[in-house]
Design goal:
By secondary structure, the chain is of the alpha/beta class. It contains 16 helices and 13 strands. Helices cover about 40% and strands about 15% of the residues. The longest helix has 21 residues.
Length: about 450
């Protein structure tokens, strides 16, 4: 084996990608004898999970979420429920405080809908979590794509795809003003002698009059470590990429080849520049599912064993819900074609325009990894691949999904992390500070080039 100890390059950053349900990405694997995913309703499950990730020096525990249960497959939710596919699900925000209390450095990103939340209450929730984590919180901004979620929230149906982004733009303007503009930098006095907790002249009510939202309010939570949480987004459509380039600090994408991913990364960085930001204002992550063992032969045997527990029905239920297509009616040996609709275009793009696979081929290739890229091999082979993807695509890191919980994550930590550290591509200790400071190496506040900061200078000077 060649000596990689002197090799240097961009440090690989890692998010653990998870959803608060029994079966995520590797559908059906909750039934594997060594999988503990069925314990997901236990607080101990999540605390132990977070401790494991912190020991592995993961940067971020990224908790995906969706409103509703996929019910497009065969016109009902049965296939999803039978397989624990995106349902039943817990509210990820409720899990954070316990995990944050059990850790000191691991950061947490929760998914929150800019379609169904209200700016005032959501801003309060995220500021509370920023306090409870001591500045280790992020927000994955979604516009919610399931029709079942829309009807659950009292809507007649799913709004048009691009319209949801228009609503999200306004939602963000509202929460930005609450987080950044309501409290001046000198508002908190906390002086027992003068008996003044807050200098009221430094606190400003926000009068927000938009097309979709209106409120008059003082932000209810005192200034938190980051004010605005670290912002993630995963839009693959043209409108989604524009939205991410304007708002996101972290971008999550999928692609079946390095060429495709490199093109996506370059596009995001170019769009960020066009929005008045720097290309490195975005940290970009690709989704991967990793099957690793001491040798390639053992890794492939592990993959084959796991495959025995995979649920095609669970995968079909997820894909049907996300793409807005009932795949039970789709010919197995025809390529899945791109269909313009108001579902999740990230999944639609990943399953269609990035390849020419038939439905049968998609089911065979995605059974254990969903929308993620699958990597199988020894620790050195996996390290080689991760480094190659970083260097050839300009990625900043990866969102890693488990296959068997917690077995495959622990295997990755035990086998691959030391190999990456040996090559100088992965940290050996956490840096100090808030999530934003760890991610970008500068202040806890969002950059002045970001739209959240557009009024901050005026408030500070007031």
């Amino acid at each position: 084996m060649s000596d990689h100890s002197a090799f240097t390059g961009k440090e690989i950053r890692l998010n653990m990608l998870e959803q608060c349900n029994p079966s995520f990405q590797a559908f059906g694997l909750w039934s594997h004898p060594r999988d503990i995913g069925a314990r997901y309703t236990s607080i101990d499950y999540w605390v132990d999970y977070a401790k494991m990730l912190e020991k592995g020096l993961f940067d971020n525990f990224f908790l995906a979420d969706v409103y509703g249960i996929p019910d497009v497959y065969e016109g009902k939710a049965d296939g999803a429920l039978r397989n624990g596919t995106q349902g039943p699900s817990l509210d990820p925000a409720m899990l954070i405080s316990a995990m944050a209390y059990a850790t000191t450095e691991l950061c947490f990103t929760i998914t929150g809908s800019a379609t169904y939340e209200m700016p005032y209450t959501f801003a309060r929730k995220m500021s509370t979590l920023d306090h409870m984590t001591n500045g280790r919180i992020g927000w994955n901004i979604v516009t919610s794509y399931l029709t079942s979620g829309a009807t659950a929230m009292g809507r007649d149906g799913l709004k048009a795809h691009d319209h949801r982004y228009e609503v999200a733009d306004e939602f963000l303007d509202g929460v930005y003003q609450l987080w950044e503009d309501s409290w001046g930098d000198n508002a908190l006095v906390k002086d027992k002698e003068s008996r003044v907790y807050v200098d009221a002249s430094e606190v400003h009510p926000i009068d927000f009059e938009g097309e979709f939202y209106r409120f008059h309010a003082i932000h209810q939570v005192e200034t938190s470590p980051q004010r605005t949480p670290v912002l993630f987004q995963a839009g693959a459509s043209a409108r989604g990429r524009q939205f991410a380039a304007q708002h996101a600090e972290g971008v999550y994408l999928n692609g079946s080849s390095k060429t495709i991913v490199a093109e996506q990364v370059a596009s995001f960085r170019r769009l960020a520049e066009e929005a008045g930001r720097a290309p490195d204002d975005l940290k970009i992550f690709a989704g991967v599912s990793i099957f690793v063992d001491k040798t390639e032969e053992l890794a492939r045997a592990r993959h084959a064993e796991y495959l025995e527990y995979a649920s095609v029905e669970g995968l079909m239920a997820m894909m049907s819900g996300a793409m807005g297509i009932d795949l039970s009616q789709y010919p197995l040996d025809e390529p899945i074609t791109y269909q313009e609709n108001d579902g999740n275009r990230s999944v639609m793009e990943a399953m269609t325009r990035n390849n020419n696979l038939t439905l049968r081929e998609v089911l065979a290739s995605r059974a254990l990894n969903g929308t993620n890229l699958a990597l199988i091999g020894s620790p050195t082979q996996i390290a080689d691949e991760l480094i190659s993807w970083m260097d050839e695509t300009d990625l900043d890191g990866f969102n890693i999904a488990h296959i068997v919980n917690h077995e495959t994550t622990q295997n990755f930590i035990d086998l691959v992390i030391p190999e990456l550290q040996k090559r100088g591509r992965y940290k050996t200790a956490y840096s100090s500070g808030t999530f934003r400071e760890k991610l970008f190496g500068n202040g806890a506040r969002i950059k002045l080039t970001h739209p959240a900061s557009k009024n901050h200078a005026a408030v500070t000077a007031a």
